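Supplementary Methods. Inverse-folding protocol.

Structures were first reduced to a discrete structure-token string of length 493. This string, shown here, constituted the complete conditioning input.
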């Protein structure tokens, strides 16, 4: 099977089909079959395959789908007409999991496609192979052949494509077409209208008998409906909704004259009356406009000034509050730092005092402990020695380096002095007293050996020889068998 995969060209596109048997990943050979892949990708972007069924399943052969009518006779390509077949020498029907175009003859490709459920060499150079099922989703695709089919290879319970998603688009110029977007928008709008109609129907069917105040609520509802009907078609203004004394309740145009103006235009008396009424109304409007300017503009100015002043006062108090808060936070931080320094100083003083107390206790209890145990006395002496050295030891830096160099020079001088004073003999090296510095005069001596030659390799003592033998070697196995047989024969005799 691996040699088949090696012979197939690399893919350059990927589409996800969400079906009732699970997700199916389809990788596309867009370079080898550009027309078929472009058609398939565009239809997937448009949602053309959403809701379509696999209308034909031949077990061990193919599973066919992609027909929106579900009959096997529908479907169209994005080109508006059937497009030509595309054959490639490296794309062959030799295994399961291939995706090819379904057609009724040569160069008759539309929207229908099929999956191969096994090797189908009879379809070679008859159908366009444009993709393959990738990964473990192959096992989801093989579930399409499960189930019963009738005599026409139509499943009794067909599986369907729920939706499609283009994961890797090999054609950058392909996008979802506007027609499909409009169709989806219409469906969403219809669904919203249906929900709204259902909600209005539910609101219309109010049952006031279920409420303890049902009769009162029903009367209020009737009054509200009547009022809305009366006010329907009438304009509303601030004159009707407020009790502002600055607004006049006298209508600008007299209703009597306005109704008279809608009568017969040929009546001269009516025309004269309408003209007079219009002139009077215009004069009244001009006067009201002048009065309105003096009555309404003056009270508004103090109101705006009050709002500005109130806003300034509010901002001032907010700034003062913010400054006070920042000042308080700074004081708290300063106090915290001061307390931290004091606590650190107290801790250092306590440690120094404890160290001095331990030293005094050690001095007081030294004689008693040392009298009881000599080993403990040696331990305390050594501990005291290192404690004193630690106190005199400087911290890291130039002085510490000078002290180290001075100690090294002192040790070298002492070593030289001991060697010059009394050179150690090899016989007396093991007889030195404890605590003596004669060991400084010791020297390291090696055993003199001549050059090792190749002929000396055979002259090796048996104690120094190292036998390397493999127990799995046939010769060693025969030797062990021979020894075992001789041992058994000796025991018999």
């Amino acid at each position: 099977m691996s040699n088949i995969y090696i012979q197939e060209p690399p893919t350059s596109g990927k589409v996800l089909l969400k079906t009732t048997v699970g997700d199916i990943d389809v990788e596309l050979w867009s370079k080898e079959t550009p027309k078929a892949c472009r058609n398939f990708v565009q239809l997937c972007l448009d949602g053309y395959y959403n809701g379509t069924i696999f209308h034909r399943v031949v077990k061990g052969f193919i599973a066919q789908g992609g027909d929106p009518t579900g009959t096997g006779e529908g479907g169209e390509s994005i080109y508006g007409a059937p497009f030509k077949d595309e054959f490639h020498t490296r794309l062959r029907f030799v295994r399961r999991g291939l995706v090819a175009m379904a057609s009724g003859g040569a160069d008759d490709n539309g929207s229908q496609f099929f999956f191969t459920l096994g090797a189908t060499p009879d379809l070679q150079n008859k159908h366009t192979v444009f993709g393959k099922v990738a990964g473990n989703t192959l096992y989801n695709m093989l579930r399409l052949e499960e189930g019963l089919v009738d005599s026409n290879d139509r499943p009794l319970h067909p599986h369907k494509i729920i939706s499609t998603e283009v994961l890797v688009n090999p054609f950058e110029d392909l996008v979802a077409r506007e027609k499909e977007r409009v169709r989806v928008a219409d469906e969403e709008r219809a669904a919203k209208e249906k929900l709204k109609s259902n909600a209005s129907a539910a609101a219309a069917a109010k049952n006031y008998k279920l409420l303890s105040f049902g009769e009162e609520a029903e009367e209020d509802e009737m009054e509200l409906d009547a009022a809305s009907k009366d006010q329907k078609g009438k304009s509303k203004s601030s004159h009707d909704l407020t009790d502002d004394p600055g607004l006049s309740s006298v209508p600008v145009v007299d209703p009597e004259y306005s109704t008279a103006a809608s009568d017969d235009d040929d009546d001269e008396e009516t025309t004269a009356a309408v003209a007079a009424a219009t002139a009077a109304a215009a004069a009244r409007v001009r006067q009201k406009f002048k009065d309105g300017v003096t009555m309404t503009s003056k009270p508004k100015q103090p109101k705006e000034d009050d709002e500005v002043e109130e806003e300034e006062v509010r901002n001032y108090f907010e700034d003062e509050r913010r400054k006070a808060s920042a000042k308080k936070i700074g004081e708290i931080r300063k106090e915290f730092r001061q307390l931290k320094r004091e606590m650190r100083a107290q801790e250092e003083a306590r440690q120094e005092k404890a160290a001095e107390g331990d030293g005094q206790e050690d001095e007081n209890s030294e004689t008693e402990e040392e009298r009881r145990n000599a080993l403990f006395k040696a331990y305390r002496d050594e501990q005291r020695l290192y404690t004193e050295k630690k106190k005199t030891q400087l911290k890291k830096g130039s002085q510490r380096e000078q002290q180290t160099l001075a100690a090294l020079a002192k040790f070298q001088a002492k070593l030289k002095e001991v060697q010059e004073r009394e050179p150690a003999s090899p016989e007396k090296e093991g007889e030195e007293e404890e605590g003596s510095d004669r060991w400084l005069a010791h020297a390291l001596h090696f055993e003199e050996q001549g050059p090792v030659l190749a002929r000396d390799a055979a002259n090796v003592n048996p104690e120094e020889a190292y036998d390397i033998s493999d127990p799995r070697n046939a010769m060693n196995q025969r030797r062990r068998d021979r020894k075992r047989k001789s041992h058994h024969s000796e025991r018999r005799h």
